[in-house]
Amino acid sequence: MDVIGHIPARVVGVDYGTKRVGIALADPLRMFAQPYGTFSPAEAEQVLFRLHEEHGLATIVVGWPVLPDGTEGAATAFVRPFIERLRELFPSVEIVQWDELFTSQIAERAIRESGARRKARRDKARVDAAAAAVILQEYLDSTGGAL
Predict the structure, then answer these.
(1) Integer CA distances (angstroms), 134 to 11, 34, 74, 93, 112, in order
(2) Which residues fall within 8 angstroms of residue 121, CB to CB, at 6 or more apart?
(3) Which positions of the chain have pLDDT values less than 70?
(4) 7 vs 1, 34, 55, 57, 79, CA distance in Å?
(5) How far is Cα 108 from Cα 145, in angstroms, rounded to an integer?
(6) What pLDDT, on the 0 to 100 scale, is given for residue 1?
(7) SS3 7
């Protein structure tokens, strides 16, 4: 287990887009995902470096945009180079591809159900960060938050 001091290294979720990258961060016990922010692709790398320095990263979970039938489509061609770059930048961190099908819709619904105003519900940056949290929460739920 990767640990800084006595605090377990963190798990991060990423919703990659060519214009915006949503990032979410799990709590130290790996039970809950929380939106962290939305950044340009270049800024996202810097943010991940900072998170790695501050908290240590055990796993980066990247949304993998498969088609409804489970096959890879054109969108995966945009995400694949980003994942390869993460593997180069963070060789000691596990990089996981996670099916992101419907995560943006789930994020939009969660924002709407939170009582957010119409303008906030249409804020693409907010949706991208929330989608990263959905991706990360699905991953955490599947692993049982195992440390």
Answers:
(1) 13, 9, 22, 21, 15
(2) 108, 111, 112
(3) 1-7, 101-123, 125-126, 145-147
(4) 10, 18, 8, 11, 31
(5) 25
(6) 46
(7) strand
10 Å CB burial of residue 118 (0-12, 13-18, 19+) is exposed
What is the token pair recorded at 26?
Answer: 């799990």
pLDDT single digits (tens) 90-121: 999 999 998 876 566 655 566 566 565 665 54
Contact assessment for residue 103 and residue 91, using Cβ atoms and an 8 Å cutoff: no
In angstroms, the CA 128 to CA 106 distance is: 11
Residue 46, Cβ density class (10 Å: 0-12 exposed, 13-18 middle, ≥19 buried): exposed
